[in-house]
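Quick illustration, no need to memorize.
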Amino acid sequence: MKRVFLTVLDAVGVGYLPDAEQYGDVGACTFGHVVDACHPQLPNLARLGLGQIAGTHYPPDPQAKGAYGRAMEKSAGKDTTTGHWEIAGLRLEKPFPTYPQGFPAEMMDAFEKAIGRKTLGNKPASGTAILDELGAEHMRTGWPIVYTSADSVFQIACHEEIIPLAELYRMCEIARAQLTGDHTVGRVIARPFVGAPGHFTRTKGRRDYSVEPFGPTLLDAVKEAGMECLGVGKIEDIFYHRGLTGSNHAAGNPACIEAWLDYMRRDFQGLVFTNLVDTDMLYGHRNDPQGFADALAYIDGKLPEIQGLMGAQDLLIITADHGCDPTFPGTDHTREYIPLLVWHPGMEKLVDLGTRTTYADIAATVAEFLGLPQRFGATSFLQALY
């Protein structure tokens, strides 16, 4: 039985794209700059060809066996939803809207009327900085904090002791239903937090409310073929719970990797799609290269266990969805190439997959591997692996 383990290392880009100037991201190189600054030890990823990928700045392992390369994003944008959708074969012709000046007054008026509360914020901000700025006022007034970023997101932050999780989630559902047409943002995000002024911390109650995919994806194809399509982490949110036969909404890399390992111990045919978010959420956005490096080293340390659970017909694909260079000015995502590391137990040599012109080549490869007819207008690299 054939199984694919497709894993996104969130925000682990490997160098700015040719069109990065349009996004203000010329010079960004998430992986390479983290390696330059912190020198993490990643021997297991190196054995798959990590050091051969331009932009990682990692020493190549001459004994590496695997397939390596990088991919360009064809869709406009640099956000989580756009990246994951393109990995799954769905490209966007038009980017999701962003709000560098905050959301329009009519949008906020409608939202406040629907939730029965006024709001605070309504501007682009770092998720931790806006808690320092407005958290105390939120606790005093009971008004939720609404903010955005350089990405297409409508984020709502509430202290769990002031506005319970169920109410925060209800407000997010209202926002998701209202944000349509020209204001169809990629994600509405619940951002619960706890603590006292000066000591606020975000909790694991985060929930993402993505827009429903505009067209068929790899997940839909796998499920419709009668195979298992299992999501780990925020995959279910990114794809609007569509195309999945099962999901474990684990939070944080250790829990997500354990959920992934649990799925590996099962007998099934199909796909496990995992998002490992910590490199993005905890370290990239917070300009913490050491934390980023430590998260990469943790993933590297789990790789032997992952490979040990793979059967002869299994395929492992490790990639990313965009960049978020913690050494780069600002705290937002960066428009970058994503790495490609591909391995199966029978690999006996090193294979150069080159630079793929779309993330969707991953979807085409997985579909061909599983015997599905879809290619999503992309090019499979399956034959190079065997």
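Residues 158 and 165 are 8 Å apart (CA to CA).
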